[in-house]
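## tool: complex_structure
## caller: assistant
## args:
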Amino acid sequence: MRWLFLCLLVVAACTSRGSITYIPDAPRIGFVPEIFVGTTRQLDPATGEFSAGRSERQTLARYEVQVPPDREPGTIRWPRQGREPNPSVDFLTIDREIYQSPAMFRADVARALAAQPRGKRELRVFVHGFNTNFAEGLYRLAQLDDDLRLPGVSVLYSWPSRGKPLAYFPDRESAVLARDGYEQFLTELAGTGAERIILIGHSMGSVLTMETLRQMAIGKNRAVLDRIGGVVLLSPDVDVDVFTTTARRIGKLPQPFFIFTSGRDKALSLSALLAGRTKRLGNIDKPEKLADLDITVIDTTAFSVKDGHFNIGKSASLIGILGNMADIDAAFQDDQAQNTDLFTQTVQQFRNARVVTVGLPVGKPGER
Amino acid sequence: MRHLAVLFLILLTACAERGVITLLPEAADIGHVRTVYFGTTRQTNPETGTFDTKRLRKAVSYGRYDISIPPDRKVGKIAWPKRGAAPDPRTDFLTTQEDLFDDAGAFRANLAGALRENQRGQRDVTVFIHGFNNTFAEGMYRIAQMANDLDLPGVTVHYAWPSAGNPLGYVYDRDSALFARDGLERLLSEVAGAGADRIVVVAHSMGAALTMETLRQISIRGDKRVMGRIAGVVLISPDIDVDVFHEQATAIGTLPQPFIIFSSKRDRALALSARLTGQRDRLGSLKDLSEVADLKVTVVDVAAFNTGDGHFNVANSPTLIRLLSRITDVNAAFDSDQTGRTGLLPGVVLTVQSATQIILSPVTTIVGANVP
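## result:
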C-alpha cells in the first residue's frame, strides 16, 4: 500500500507545474478577481515571478487574474506550452503590481473594501498548502473566487513552498518559518478598515494559520484577533493532538470555526503514515476527540475528487452547494438535519463540537 | 544498495529492547543515589503504571525519582537489569524511590525544599530536555548518570516530552515536540516559582527545537520572571532548520547568556535529518558561521573544545562551569544513546529523500566565535 503512494508521488513529480502567463492586453472576456498578496517568497528578477526561495523581507503585491468563461467549476487550465494562450479557456494574469510601501498596499486594500457595501467589507485571506508554487496558489484562489462569488476582498498569503511533491519536510519547516511574516501581514490588513478578516488555510497552510493564531493569542495581538471573523481549515494537515493543544492555547476560538474533512483524503493518509499514525485532522474519523472545542467539522467524503485533498476547491457539486448558500455560516446555524434538493446534511453534536456530514440526495449521481 | 543497508539497520534497531524503570529501594545501600525531578507530558499507561509514548493532553505530570547509579559500570554506559534475572544493584541502574506529585503546587513545594539546602543566590537548577527517540526511563537514567558523573551542583530537573522512543518515529516526535511546548513553559515557570536563582537549560537534538519554541513563546508572552532566571542555554547537536532558528532567536530578542551551541563534525543523525528536511543545514551541523553571525551565540565544535582553558568567561553559575568543563562527556553521553540507532527515518521517507540528492558537506570547525 505504501509503495503505491510512493509511485503516485513519483508520477506526480513529473507532471508540469503552473506558471504565470502575463498578458496585460488580453481581451477582457472572463471574470477578473482582484487579489491582494503578501509573500515571503523571493522575487526572481530574471522572470519577475515569485520563486520557492525564502526571503526575510515580505513583499506586498496585487494581481488581477482572468478566469476564462469556458470551464468546469473546480478546474484550472494553464496555457499550453508552445501554444498561443487562449483567453476563452486559459487562466491569464492581466495586471500585477508590487508595492513599494505597506502604506500604498493598505490604501489600495482600503479602496477595494470601500467598493463593497457596508456590512460586506471583509477580507478573505487564503493560505495555500504543501507542494504549491506561487502561480498555483494564486490561480486556485482566482478559481475559487469565480466558483463561489463570495462578497468581500480576496487576499492570498503565499509562503515559500518548494512546489515539489517530494519536498514535504522542507515545506513543513517553511510553513512554520512563515509565522511572523503572516502575523505582520495580518496586522497590515487589520489597518485597512476591514470589518472582518476570514482566515482560510488549506492542507499545510492550516499549520501556518493555527501557529499564527496561537502566537497572536500568546502575544495578545488584539488589534488583529478582534478582527478575525471566522476560520476555515480545508483538509488540514495537522496532527490531532497538536491541533487540540494549539486550539486550547488560543483560548476562545474565532467564530465560526469550520474544519472541512474527508475520510478519503489520500494526501493526508500519506502524511499520517509518515507520522506513524493513521489520521491527521483533515481525515479525522473520531471527531469526539475535538468535543471540547467550539468548532464545526464538515465531512465532505461524499464529494471526493481525485485524491480527496481539496474537495471544496475541486468538486463541482460541493462548490454548487456552497455557492448557493447566501451565507455559509447561516446555513450551518440550524442544528437540525436539513435536506434540500441540492444536498443532504446530518448533524451530530459532541459537546461543543459539531459534525456536519454533507451528502448528495439519493438518486443524484455522485462524483468520482 | 546503501539505502537498503541503512533500512535493514533501522529495522534491526527498531526491535532493540528499550529501557524500563525497575524499582528496588535496597539499591540505595549499594549505588550512588541521584535525585532527578521531572515534569512530563507523557501519558501514564494504566496497565504498567509507567509513562509511555502517548501524549498527555490536559496538563503536566510532576514527580521525582531517586536513581541508584551502580558502582561497577563502564563510564557513560547505562546497564539495565537483565530480563528474567534478579536486578543487581552493583551493576544495574535502578530506581530506589518514586514520588508522583498530585499537582504543580506539590511539585513546587518539594522542589523549593530541595533548593533551600543551598544558600540564597546559589540555588541552581539544570533543566534537561531530551532528544528524538527516547523513552521515559532512558531519559531519566541518562540524566541521572550525567548529573552524577559530572558531580553537577544544584538540583536536576528533566522534561520528559512524548517521544515515541522509536527510531522510525521521527515525524511523530516532531509533532510531539510542537505539542510539548506549553508543558515545558509550565515546567520552567514552576521551577522559577520554586525559588531557583538560576536556571540552566540543556537540550539535545530535537529537544533543542522544543526549547527554542518554548523560549520564543515565553518571550512573546512577555514573561520576564522566567526569562530573567535563565542563566544559560546549552544546545547540543540541535536539530533545527537554520532559518527557523533565526526566526525563533529574533522573536526571543535578547538571547539568554551565555547561549552555546555545540555542534559535532561527526553528527550522522543530523546529516540524515538535514537530508530529510531539505538542503538547508541543521543548526547542529553548521558549516558556515555567517548563518548565525548576527546572533549572540557561541558555536563550538565539541571535538575541538579544549576544557579548562578558561576561554568561556561566562561563569557566575557553578553549574554551568561544571557542565561546560565536562561538555565532552555530556556530548558523549547523549551520543551514546544514538549509537547503533542513527536511523531517523521511516522507510518510505528514506526512499523519498534519496531522490532529493542532498549531501551535507563536512562541518568546518568553529570555535569560540562571538564570545560575549
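## assistant note: Chain A has twelve helices and twelve strands. The interface with chain B takes residues 2, 5-6, 9-10, 13, 54, 162, 166-170, 172-173, 176-177, 179-180, 215, 218-219, 239, 241-242, 244-245, 249, 273-277 of chain A (CB under 8 Å). Handing back to user.
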